[in-house]
């Protein structure tokens, strides 16, 4: 299947924190193109800059240089992002689902509130839509009526995804969505993400977990110290990495892929 229309174009983006001698350039001259229906991965160790770049793509962090276009328009107008009705088109799921959910609201209330904001519908319709979204995410009606502290980490993350999907976005930015949940919950969440791709949905998955990246994405960007050191088709990068940093990342993972990468390192 060929690529869909260009959805997001990240052009030579840099993000700098602080000024003068204390300035830290977290992201340096990075470019990405995201097409409709495309799953993309950004992988790197903690502190590599990948989450900062994702926040910039979500409009939560303004770049110090470069430009981010969504459907051909800059996402930033002055200090504001995603004007002209595009805010609902790009949604983000964060690493810590507990921190991103209101502890006083049930899962159903949290998602219904988002439905009301984005869809401009009444209470009954918003709750009906919210329950359908939660059930699609594998959350039962009984669990939908629980508050975040009463849910497991995996359930909280799926509530967060349901809330993001309530806006009917074209692009989902997922920042380490599996890192705070157990393996069983990870598998459920990734299966849900995979199903979204069948609906011509675009996902940018940010993770340090190469297994997660390999399972879901078709194209991957490897990030180190704020720079993309390697990118390309996911299987090609994983099976024949060109950069030493990528080789070391692959060698650190368990299983046959890591074993093969360690053997290649030993021979090099």
What series of H and E elements makes up the topology?
EEEHEEEEEHHHHHEHEHEEHHH
Q: Which structural class do you get from the secondary structure elements?
A: alpha/beta
CATH architectural name? 3-Layer(aba) Sandwich
Number of domains: 1
Strand order of the largest sheet: 8-9-10-3-11-12
Main sheet characteristics: 6 strands, mixed
Number-wise, the strands total: 12
Helical proportion, percent range: 25-40%
Task: Report the mean per-residue pLDDT as an integer.
Answer: 88
CATH fold-level assignment: Rossmann fold
**Oligomer state of the chains in this structure:** single chain
CATH class: Alpha Beta
Number of helices: 11
Poorly predicted runs are: none
Strand percentage = 25-35%
Describe this structure in words.
The two termini are 36 Å apart. This protein is 39% helix and 26% strand. The model has no long low-confidence stretch (mean pLDDT 88). A 6-stranded mixed β-sheet has the order 8-9-10-3-11-12, sandwiched between helices. The protein has a 4-stranded antiparallel β-sheet with strand order 2-1-4-5, covered by helices on one side. It has one domain (6-267): Rossmann fold (3-Layer(aba) Sandwich). The chain is globular and about 65 Å long. The protein is α/β, with parallel strands linked by helices. It has helices at 50-57, 97-100, 107-119, 123-136, 141-144, 153-165, 183-197, 210-216, 234-239, 244-251, 255-267; strands spanning 6-17, 24-35, 39-43, 65-70, 73-74, 76-77, 80-81, 90-93, 171-175, 202-207, 219-224, 227-233. Helix 6 packs parallel to helix 7 (183-197) and helix 10 crosses helix 11. A hairpin with a 2-residue loop joins strand 11 and strand 12.
């Amino acid at each position: 299947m060929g690529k869909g229309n260009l959805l997001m174009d990240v052009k030579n983006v840099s993000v700098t924190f602080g000024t003068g001698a204390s300035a830290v350039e977290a992201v340096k001259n990075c470019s990405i193109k995201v097409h409709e229906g495309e799953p993309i991965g950004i992988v790197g160790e903690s502190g590599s800059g990948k989450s900062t770049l994702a926040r910039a793509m979500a409009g939560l962090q303004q770049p110090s240089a470069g430009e981010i276009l969504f459907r051909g328009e800059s996402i930033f107008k002055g200090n504001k992002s995603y004007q002209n009705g595009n805010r609902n088109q790009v949604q983000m799921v964060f690493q810590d689902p507990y921190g991103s959910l209101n502890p006083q609201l049930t899962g159903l209330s949290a998602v219904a509130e988002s439905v009301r904001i984005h869809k401009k519908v009444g209470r009954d319709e918003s709750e009906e839509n919210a329950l359908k979204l939660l059930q699609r995410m594998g959350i039962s009606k009984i669990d939908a009526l629980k508050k975040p502290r009463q849910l497991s980490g995996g359930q909280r993350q799926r509530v967060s995804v349901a809330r993001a999907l309530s806006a009917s976005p074209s692009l989902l930015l997922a920042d380490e969505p599996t890192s705070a949940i157990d393996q069983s919950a990870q598998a459920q969440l990734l299966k849900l993400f995979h199903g979204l791709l069948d609906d011509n949905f675009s996902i940018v998955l940010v993770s340090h977990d190469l297994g997660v990246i390999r399972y879901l994405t078709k194209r991957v960007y490897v990030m180190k110290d704020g720079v993309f050191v390697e990118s390309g088709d996911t299987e090609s990068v994983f099976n024949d990495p060109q950069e030493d940093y990528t080789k070391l990342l692959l060698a650190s993972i368990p299983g046959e892929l890591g074993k093969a990468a360690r053997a290649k390192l030993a021979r090099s």
